[in-house]
């Protein structure tokens, strides 16, 4: 196999990462935002609500339900985002949810928080599936596997840093 010039060599992990840096950044930013809001911020926003002790359960259920719907939404080809720029723009637009959550927690009611949590879950599931299905498309088997592993590494890095940044919501709460 080493002497046969007909067998192309697989791209290195560094080459794959450099060619798909935008997808890697998308995965990192998706989970950085999601884990910096959910579930820690929601657990801290358990003041007096008309739902009482059910409020946290309703928020978690609405997040999980909308995340599930978001993961299946890209099956409809007409609404699937396939553009690299479109995906990056959608991921960056999600960051507008940060001030929305802050103001909803301070001034809004529980209905606004449920809507925002549903939007967070829907966009999380939708964008994750769009990135993970579009990124490996131009490559062959071994490169698809390697790129998938790199994207999952970026996903895990976003989860870890997002969980750490989740503590920032506690600033000013007596810590």
From TrEMBL:
InterPro entries assigned: Eqnu_transpt
Membrane topology annotation: Multi-pass membrane protein
GO cellular component terms, A-Z: plasma membrane
Pfam families xref list: Nucleoside_tran
One MF annotation (Gene Ontology) recorded for this entry: nucleoside transmembrane transporter activity
Localization (cell): Membrane
Record's keyword terms, sorted: Membrane, Transmembrane, Transmembrane helix, Transport
Transmembrane segments: 23-42, 54-74, 86-105, 111-135, 147-170
Main location: membrane
Family according to the record: Belongs to the SLC29A/ENT transporter (TC 2.A.57) family.
Listed name of the protein: Major facilitator superfamily (MFS) profile domain-containing protein
Lineage: Eukaryota, Viridiplantae, Streptophyta, Embryophyta, Tracheophyta
């Amino acid at each position: 196999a080493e002497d046969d010039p007909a067998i192309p060599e697989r791209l290195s992990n560094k080459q794959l990462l450099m060619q798909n840096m935008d997808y890697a950044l998308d995965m990192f930013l998706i989970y950085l935002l999601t884990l910096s809001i959910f579930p820690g911020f929601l657990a801290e926003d358990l003041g007096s609500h008309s739902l009482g002790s059910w409020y946290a359960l309703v928020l978690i259920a609405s997040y999980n339900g909308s995340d599930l719907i978001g993961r299946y939404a890209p099956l409809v080809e007409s609404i699937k985002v396939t553009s690299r720029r479109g995906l990056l723009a959608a991921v960056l637009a999600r960051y507008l949810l940060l001030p929305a959550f802050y103001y909803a927690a301070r001034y809004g009611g529980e209905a606004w928080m449920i809507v925002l949590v549903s939007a967070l879950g829907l966009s999380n599931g939708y964008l994750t599936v769009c990135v993970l299905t579009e990124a490996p498309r131009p490559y062959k088997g071994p490169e698809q596997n390697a790129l998938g592993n790199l994207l999952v590494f970026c996903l895990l890095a976003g989860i870890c840093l997002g969980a750490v940044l989740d503590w920032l919501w506690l600033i000013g709460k007596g810590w």
